[in-house]
Structure formats: C-alpha cells, structure tokens
C-alpha cells in the first residue's frame, strides 16, 4: 500500500510540474467608466503585449497582434528605425476568456502597422512594403511581396494602414488611394478614393468610413469605386464626406494635449474641447449588442482617453452621423495611459479595443513645446512598456461558440452567410471564395434569391462574383425581386455583362427600376448607364434623362451619372438638347468641368498618384536630427558654448530669416528672447552642400517652426530658391543686424 501511495505521489508531482504556467495579467479598471448595460474586460496585457496597434482574428478566433514598440520611446522618437516590431498570436490555453500565452509569429519588423487574415494566410504592412505569407503550424512560409510601394518610410501617423476586407472582395486602406485583392493566385492593385488617416471600416451595405485627427467621422455616400470610372471626374459631393460637423469630445479629466495653449483647444477647466487625434472608427456589426447599437460607429479618441459612439442615418443618397450623447461618452478613463488606437468587431459579437497604452501617442515631428513640457512634468515618456486588448460585451450577451472555419464544409459556410454577426458573414463569404467551394453554388444562389435577410443576399452575390458564377439573367432576377439595397448591388455587378445581346432586356429592367422611384436605385442605375450608352447611346439616353430630370438638383445623383460616363461624356456634353434641358443643374456644371479637365489632360489625382508622400514635418525632423540637433539639442534648447536655443526664438518665428540662416549661416553674437549669446562660433550654412535641396530646406523649416514655436509655418521652395541669391555683406554668414535690416 505504501509503495502504491508513493507511486501516485510521484506521478502527481510529475503531472503538476509539466503543467503550463498561465501568464494572465490582472489589470484593474477602476479608473474606467463604460455605458450602463456593458462590461469592459482586459483579455490581454503586458508582459504578453507591448505597444499593440492593430489586431485581427484567425480562422479559430484567436487574436493576432501587430506591435510597434519602436514608436515614441522618448520625446525624440528614438529607435523608430530599429527592428523591434513583431506580430504575435495570443492564446487562451485555460479557456477562461483571458489570454495567458503570447506566441511570436514574426519578429524583427520595423514599425508594422496593419495585418489581415485573408486567403488562408496573413497580409501585413511593414513600410514601405505590403507582404503576404502562408501559415504553417503558426509559422510564416512562402513570403510574397504584394506591393513594394505600399507606403513611404517614416512617420506612422501618415502611412497607409487598415487592410479592411470589404463585401466587394477588395481590401481597402486608410491614408491610401489603392485597393488590393488576389484572384486566380495573382495579386491585383488598382486606384481607389484616398481615404482618412488611421483606421477604416465598412457598414453592412459596403460603404466605407474613416477619419482624421480633427474630424471624428468621414465616409462615402456610395459603394467604393462605383463613381470613379470616369478618370477625369472627381466626385466631391459623394465621396470623402464629413458626416458630422460636431467634433466635440468629453474627457473626464485634464489630460495632456498638443497645442493646449491655443485658443479654443481647452475649456476653462483645461479639458479638451474638440478631437485632435481621432482615429480608427468601427461600424459595429456584431449582432450581440441591443438593436439600437446595430451599425453604430465607435471612434477612438486616444488624446482624450475615451471611446466615442455615433449614430448613422442612411437617406439613400447620403449618410448622416450624429453623436449619441452630449456631455457623455461610451467609455472614459482617468488613466492617461489609456490610448485606444484601433477597434474591431469580434468573432463572438463583442467589440475589441486595442489600447497601445503609451504615454506619448503623438509623433515627435508634430509635438509642440507646450506638450513636451507637459509630458516631461508628468513623466509620460516613461509609460512605454505596456499594451492591452480590451473586450466590450453587452451584459445580456449570449454569444455562440466561435466556429473553426478551417473545419467547416461548404454547406456550413453557406449557412453562416445569414448569421447575425457581420464578422461571421464576412469570413464565411471569404472562405467560400478563396477555397473555391464551387459545389455549393446552387445553395449560394438560393440565399441570394430567397433569403429574408438582405445582408446575406448581398454576401451571397459577392460569393458568386468571387467564384465567377454570376450571369446576366440571374442578376436581372435579383434586381427585379429584391429590395433597393440588394438591387443596387445587382446593378453594380450587371455592368460586367453589358453587351449588345443584352440591350433589350436591360432596357426593360431599367424602366422597371425607374418606376420604383427609389433614390438609392437611381444612383446605381444612373452610374451604370454610361456603360450601356457606349453600346447604344440613343436607346439609353432617355433613361438617363428620366433620372436626372426627376431630381435635377441632387448632387450625389449628378456624381453618380457623370462618374459612369467615361466612354460617352464628350458626346453627352455636345448634345445641345441634354445640356439645354438640364442647364443650371449640378449635372451640367460638373460635366462642363469634367470635359475641361479632360481636354487639359487633368485626371482625378488618384489615377496619377503612385504612393503616399511623406509629411514634410517628418522628413524635416529626420534632417534636423541628422544636421542640427548636435548643436542646438534634440529639444531645441541649445547647448551652452555651442549654439543658442531654438525654442520660441524670434529667428525661428520669422521663416524667411530662418531660411537665410539655414542657407547662408549665422555669425554671433546673437540675441534670443532678449538674452545675448556671445558664442565665438559661426553656424555654417548649407548652401554649399549640393545634396541638400530647396525641398529639404523647406522641410526643415516646417519641422523647426512646428517643434520650437507656437505657430507652425511653411515656406515655398520657390521663395527658398530666391533667398539663395540674397547675400550678406561678406558673402559668407549673416550677422544678426543684417538679418534685422532685411526684415524692414
């Protein structure tokens, strides 16, 4: 008996010693407040994470994280070019809903900022490249460069990001005018509308939403790439629209804000008034919140340590946003390290928040002296080795178990096209396409034709599009029997089947659509007409006129029609009857500008822009640290005996004087803020360095005035070229008196 007991003890000890350690970090959320009826939970934190900026979910629902620990490690932004970034997989091995392990998928990356699980692998951005890798046993294999010019290197605030797979099977980005997809094993890239700054999202219909620092929500009134077929027309009334004029935010404490000294930035209690760093909007499509939250937009406000909620109204030819509340936010915190930078719909219907949890969220190239001083006083630059993923769930949520998409058969995937959760529907659509599950095409057609859920119908249509299983007659039936939203997608897809053989059927269909008198249908019918008019202008022109004369003052409708007229815009413009009957309408005015641009060879900028340009302050900052910081100091406060301070210097505030100093140099003594600096050295000018261009000088000025004065300024390269010829009396460095004389 004693031997048996000893044996059991040894076995138990061995089993216990072999158990995995669960590294769950407990983070108190006492300083956070969320809207009543919701729960906020930390599902991952340091040391499993460090500076997360983006997440996505794999086929099993696991969270994958792009980490950017090289961003703003100190007030000078040191280490940005170091390969310290990574992509990690969070695992919950004890199945309690909180990550306990972090597995490195890929490391030694320089500032990765976006990732997406698509085509069975991982698409990720590591500027300047966009890469795709297959996944085998949670390791990257078969690395392929998708785009060698995805982004310029430099400031992550102004580089493409997002990688949002939309319902139309294309992948869209913020801060970019390109979209991507893979078809028949080959990656495709084509122009699209330039959108936003950081983060991008889509609604159930497929419209895109985005924002920039000071505007909490921008978006398109129309489906992407439908109104830009005419390369000489820029549809300004329908794309890249400000959806609300209310930029008010409601932080619960006086945080540290860039340029807080400027009039109107802070209120009397030193609390932020309007957004200054809004990012990463998310249309909630999870289906687990209450009905009133369906297709609400949530917006990250990291500088205010909060997450905002906005309501959308769809009119058919526009989208209107309204803040859900005044004097209130969805999530607020008094933790100044709370930096929500990205939001995602989750596989089980929850909303996930990526909290970079960093003291300094703004790039050093844009940081004002005011914020530098605040950050140092509060030691915000020491909050650097953190990172959290938070989950928002409704208190009455009954989330289903997350399906393993890799284990599902075709019929099971088709059923998921009707799921309440938009993330599930999106993923089911994508898996049916990239796995080429063609044996369920009839089942997919049944969903497209007869589902009572309009969103599942739309998903089914794009499964068929991705599998090349659509036909003209099938789309005719869809458009005839479906509601306006489904029929609108049908009209978009029908353009691919335009041919002389289909003209008569198309005419009957289009006249039926007109009789329905629904503005949403008019938009997409009007947009498709140019394709059909190129086949028979005489037959389809009356259809166009019926639409335009019914709503002659509708700017979105004018955009829609002109955006599709690429092949016949000149013929329409030269048709006196059309122009006379619609004179003084937006259609005629916009078409006239389009033809003028066409004659001048002036295209919509998205068709001539090959990549996003680096912000001038970013490139200026790089040159400043290479050339100027060794004497003036990284913080612009000067170095005793070597160079005077730049901070609030009158020589910095005057951009022409600053240009002359940079170009030709400055000989002391010199006064700064009333103090004499009698340094026995002369600052050499850069004019003799042939590798430094006028643009370089302009960029340095842009950075220096932004970093070391209260008011950022720029100087044109043309003026800098002129100042090259302005010489001092000695022909060498200027003296202070000579510069002052030139001011008069």
TrEMBL record:
Residues 1-22 form the signal peptide. Coiled coil: none annotated. It comes from the Bacteria. Pfam families: Cytochrom_C (PF00034), DUF7133 (PF23500). Residues 615-708 form the Cytochrome c domain. Keywords: Heme, Iron, Metal-binding, Signal. The keyword Metal-binding applies. One of its GO terms (molecular function) is metal ion binding. This is Cytochrome c, mono-and diheme variants.
